[in-house]
Design a protein that fits this description.
Number of strands: 18
Oligomer: single chain
CATH topology of the largest domain: Rossmann fold
Helix content: 25-40%
Strand order of the largest sheet: 9-10-5-11-4-1-3-2-16-17-18-15-12-14-13
CATH class of the largest domain: Alpha Beta
CATH architecture of the largest domain: 3-Layer(aba) Sandwich
Bound molecules: adenosine-5'-diphosphate
């Protein structure tokens, strides 16, 4: 393994893995730190943690466990991945985790930049922009868990770390890789431990890449990844995303109520393919558990005779108005918990019926299904839409899967995804 990555949430991990694959690396993503040794021959592993909003000490602990495992597997460089909007609580966790990793790696200097121009995240003079506006005007100032009220990353990072924070600004970036390397040396001589890096284009990230070659630790969003594979002589190649040939039946399980997913469900239904809808509004608060179980059985009985003919869609996706009614009737958390449990049970049932090609819509829904299907590792394959690749769970009957978080994907995502899987794996099998 060349690059060992630690991501502070699941969908962010896939986003990073996707960028590495597109730049020429063969990548495995794991859910949590594995207990066993790495079984596949890959260039990078992304250990996905859920450490963004947990207490800082716990985040440090989990990140150090991941680090230890990655080093034991031979990782030559470590990449700590956080959100492209630098999501952090008042206590961190970006600063404390960065410091702990630097201490463990005996690393005196590292960078920090969430820049990801392809997704509209740019850093200029140390200020983070989301699209055309500063981070603290982008809606992120109202985020329920990680409100970001200051766009100045030097200040934000300095409030989270004992080490001195500096800046490599756009004027240095414009002068190229050796100027960046020179500036890094200068900052280090001035006692700086962490440097925020300006980047407003993919070119900036590609110029930055070679300057990071001998750095034991990189901290960044997923953008910096595009400049790294070349440090190992790796070029963009379809081989990086090659997955085994797809087999088994196809199913789409959707528990996302985001607008994009609502559109995808509607689009799929107009194509005349079979679908089955959970309607929790028909459940009563007192009987919901039993009614949910009965509906799971109904959904599976409905799907069984259809699977041999093509994909089936089983969904709970609904519009905001109905969702509100369900939540008012059953309780917000309880409704989510039951729906996630229902879709997780549906996926286990479908797996027993022979489904091996999965499209799963919804971040929380994906988490519930992946856990129920007992998937702990997946190899990252070709991209379907920005940020959403096909994956393959090796040594496991689950087969191929794509995990789509709420607002990702074009309206025809469900059918397109299955088409992409079957053409791309046929070509590379
Ligand atoms: P997204 O990625 O769009 O946020 P998630 O799966 O993370 O999707 O979250 C959607 C949540 O809404 C899940 O907890 C899911 O179980 C719940 N949910 C889905 N459909 C319904 C429904 N019809 N009624 C109530 N809750 C629902």
């Amino acid at each position: 393994m060349k690059l060992g990555c630690i991501a502070d949430d699941f969908t962010g991990a896939t986003d990073l893995a996707n960028n590495l694959v597109r730049s020429g690396m063969r990548v495995m993503q794991t859910f949590g730190t594995p207990t066993a040794t790495l079984s596949s021959d890959v260039d990078a592993v992304v250990v996905a943690l859920k450490s963004r909003t947990i207490p800082a000490q716990e985040a440090v602990q989990k990140s150090l466990e991941a680090l230890q495992w990655l080093r034991a597997q031979g990782a030559e460089q470590i990449y700590f991945k956080y959100c492209s909007t630098f999501d952090s609580t008042a206590d961190g966790n970006i600063g404390p985790v960065t410091e702990a990793l630097m201490d463990a790696l005996d690393c005196k200097f590292t960078i920090a930049t969430p820049a990801f121009p392809d997704n509209g995240r740019t850093v200029f003079k140390g200020y983070l922009f989301a699209g055309a506006v500063l981070l603290n005007e982008s809606g992120m100032q109202n985020h329920p868990l990680t409100p970001m009220t200051d766009a100045n990353l030097v200040r934000v990072m300095q409030s989270q770390t004992q080490r001195k924070v500096g800046l490599i600004d756009h004027t240095v970036m414009a002068r190229g890789t050796s100027a960046i390397a020179e500036k890094m040396k200068q900052l280090q001589n001035e006692g700086v431990g962490v440097a925020i890096v300006d980047a407003t284009s993919n070119e900036d990230l590609k110029t930055l890449g070679p300057a990071l070659k001998n750095m034991p630790l990189i901290t960044a969003g997923s953008g910096v990844a595009i400049g790294l594979p070349r440090n190992w002589g790796l070029q963009v190649s379809v081989n990086a995303s090659a997955l085994p040939k797809a087999q088994g039946y196809q199913a789409i399980v959707s528990g996302s109520c985001s607008l994009a997913t609502q559109g995808q469900v509607a689009h799929y239904k107009t194509s005349g393919l079979p679908s089955w809808q959970f309607e929790p509004l028909l459940w009563s608060a007192a009987e919901a558990h039993a009614q949910m179980k009965a509906d799971v059985a109904k959904a599976l009985a409905w799907a069984q005779p259809l699977l041999a003919k093509g994909p089936v869609l089983i969904y709970a996706t609904t519009d905001a108005e109905t969702l509100q009614k369900v939540q008012a009737k059953l309780g917000r958390e309880q409704a989510s918990e039951w729906m996630e449990s229902a879709l997780a049970q549906v996926s286990v049932g479908l797996q027993k019926l022979g489904v091996k090609q999965w499209v799963i819509a919804g971040g929380e829904t994906s988490g519930a299904c992946v856990q129920a299907l007992n998937i702990s590792q997946m190899q990252i394959g070709p991209q379907i839409d920005p940020g959403v690749p096909w994956c393959f769970a090796p040594n496991h009957t689950a087969g191929h899967l794509t995990l789509k978080s709420g607002n990702f994907g074009t309206p025809d995502f469900f059918t397109k995804a299955l088409k992409v899987l079957n053409t791309s794996t046929k070509a590379t099998a």
